[in-house]
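Q: Convert this sequence to structure tokens.
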Amino acid sequence: MTGAEVRKLSDEEITVELANLRGKLLALKNKGVSEKIEDTSQFGKIRKDVARLLTEQTARAAS
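A:
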């Protein structure tokens, strides 16, 4: 998800997407405990997407 895509989302969509990504991150962490993860770069990608969404959410709240 790029910054431009994030800016196009509504406030509700950002909240829903944040919940989805946090759930994916938790599931990935739990999977890592029990078995080997094929693509460990997914951790960073999901965390960066969460950061993009939180940044946009904060910017909207400030304005």
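The mean pLDDT is 95.
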